[in-house]
Design brief:
Belongs to the anti-sigma-factor antagonist family. This protein has 4 helices and 5 strands. The chain is α/β, with parallel strands linked by helices. The protein starts with a strand and ends in a 7-residue tail after the last helix.
Length: 116
């Protein structure tokens, strides 16, 4: 599992996760993902390279989203693999974290101009 972090503006971070978000994958990216959540007000997460997500991966996303929410921030997920999106929706993650088709949609939902 790999993680790439790209600042898009003040307090706006794009995180790209690539690989399986299973026990090993979550452990590999958790420190940097947590750090990204702590540094951001808006975090958009590109899941286009994540073909599988276990419950530990869902927990990682929810913990980050809750931390962002506590400080008035927001997380948006985008470009989910269809099976991953199905898992996220069936477990109710979409009730807490927006799931969007594109990065621009995720940013717009957070009130950020997509040109950022």
């Amino acid at each position: 599992m790999k993680i790439e972090r790209t600042p898009l503006g003040p307090d706006i971070i794009l995180v790209r996760l690539e690989g399986r978000l299973d026990i090993a994958g979550a452990a590999a990216v958790e420190p940097e993902f947590k750090s990204s959540c702590e540094a951001a007000r808006v975090l958009v997460v590109d899941l286009s390279g994540t073909p599988f997500m276990a419950s530990i991966g869902i927990r990682l996303l929810l913990a980050g989203a809750k931390g962002l929410h506590r400080k008035g921030g927001i997380m948006g997920l985008f470009a989910c693999d269809p099976q991953v999106e199905k898992v996220l929706r069936s477990t109710g993650v979409d009730q807490l974290v927006g799931i969007h088709a594109t990065r621009d949609e995720a940013l717009a939902a957070a009130g950020i101009s997509p040109a950022t």
